[in-house]
Amino acid sequence: MNWAVYALSFFLIISCKSEIPKENPNIILIMADDMGYECLSSYGSSSYSTPVLDELASNGIKFDNCVSQPLCTPSRVKIMTGLYNYRNYDYFGHLNTNQFTFGNLLKESGYATCIAGKWQLNGLAYKDDIYDWNDNTKPNKLGFDEYCLWQLTKTGKQGGRYADPLIEENGKLLERNDEDYGPDIFSNYILDFIDRKKEVPFFIYYPMVLVHDPFVPTPDSKEWVDITLRKKKDTSYYKDMVAYTDKIVGRIIHKLEELDIVDNTIIIFTGDNGTHPSIYSHTKEGVIRGGKGNTIDAGTHVPLIISWPKKIKNGFIHKGLIEFSDFFATFAEIAEKDVVSDGKSFYALLNGEKYETRRTAFVHYDPKWNKRVTQYRNQFIRTIDYKLYQDGNFYNLNNDILEKSPLLNDSLLQEELELKNNLQIGLKDHPDWK
User: Fewest CB atoms within 10 A around its CB: which of 77, 81, 192, 324?
Assistant: First the structure.
């Protein structure tokens, strides 16, 4: 199939902006950078303190099995477009403007839209191949009325994301200041957007810069008072960065409460991929090493917490699978739009209606980046308990979470053999890829 035509079909399906009633829910999607599930105490962590997110989980839905891509750009492309990476992923750090994102979807459905945080989708590493790498209107073209972003047309080497950040806001570079902290700038922008758009349905996408390396002090770290230490790198600061992430989520919730609009706001918190491999976290299940870049569980198992007080009156845990293509499909159902997606909507689950749990999750992973992560390029399909790769390696995740010992056919129980055969059929739904 011609995927340029595929992408164009989105625009033909949704061709004009429509007015929607105010009672439609506001949507805020917060995605931490490099945060696996083991970083929240509600998921059993004892290394970090996340009281705001823990309370959000206790009053909303805590998803125990959300499957991301193993790396940042693959996850961003998948979550924003609802498509598997083999359809539209071309370069690391790039999203082509011929794609139709959930920003386009909700903007065309009448939502006021905003993105703040990490962009890294202009293709800055491929300036010889991508003609519009320096186009600072790409966020607008991809569905966002307003933006406040790091790594839009300037690389990370030109200016960082934390102390003294280099940030672009709606076509202009912000003046840099030694006293500024990037996550505060992004969250303040979001709070202002909420203030200005409180009378209409709004969609905020907040791909955070926290908790990605470099691991450096936050304004709540004791070292912050010494300006010479604000860029000091040490994994010990990861704990402070997780705490600051939790604090920012609390600020957003407080603003919604202050404006009396929290009841009809869907707040979604997740992570884009697993934690950095240099981070070891203590949990009730033992020590977990971050698996960012790798297709093992620690690379793709991320937290997912959703709050919607108007509909979710009593918190509960959902143990079924969710994959990153599902967000786009869910937003489409909220907006009552019939669009093409690889995902399965979980709107019924949020709305208290009957929901048929996803039986499998699929990941196509070809990061097109450095050797450390490219060595793990692969395809797999999985259930909660079992995982099958395209090369035939089959794992029982309950007994082998690090995937050290693939199961041999002659060792399988009859039901395991039948499951493996069914998963092989599932893989054949996708293009043959080596």
Answer: 192
Rounded percentage of the chain residues whose pLDDT exceeds 70:
95
Residues pairing with 323 in the sheet: 67
- Written out in words, the top-level CATH class of the domain with range 22-352 is alpha beta
CB 376 within 8 A of CB 384: no
Give the pLDDT score at 321.
98
**For strand 61-67 and strand 316-323, is the pairing parallel, antiparallel, or unpaired?**
parallel
Give the per-residue pLDDT at 54: 97
Cβ-defined contacts of 149-153 (< 8 Å, 24+): 149/115, 149/116, 149/117, 149/118, 149/119, 150/117, 150/118, 150/119, 150/120, 150/182, 150/186, 150/209, 151/118, 151/119, 151/120, 151/122, 151/124, 152/119, 152/122, 153/122, 153/124
Residue tagged 């700038």 (tokens): 185
- The CB-based long-range contact list for 227-236 (8 Å cut-off, 24+ gap) reads 227/178, 230/162, 230/163, 230/164, 230/178, 231/160, 231/162, 231/163, 235/278, 235/279
Q: What is the side-by-side strand order in the sheet with 394-396?
A: 361-365, 378-382, 386-389, 394-396
Of the candidates 392, 56, 415, 106, which has an alpha carbon nearest to the alpha carbon of residue 257? 56
Q: For residue range 210-240, what is the model confidence (pLDDT) as tens digits?
A: 999 999 999 999 999 999 999 999 999 999 9
What residue has token string 């905020």? 204
Beta bridge mates, 66 = 302, 322
pTM to 2 decimal places: 0.94
Burial profile 380-396: b = 16 or more Cβ within 10 angstroms, e = fewer: bbbbbebbbbbeeebbb
Distance CA 419, CA 424 (A): 9
Measured between alpha carbons, how far is 204 from 115 in angstroms, rounded to an integer? 6
Domain parsing of the chain, residue ranges: 22-352
DSSP 198: T
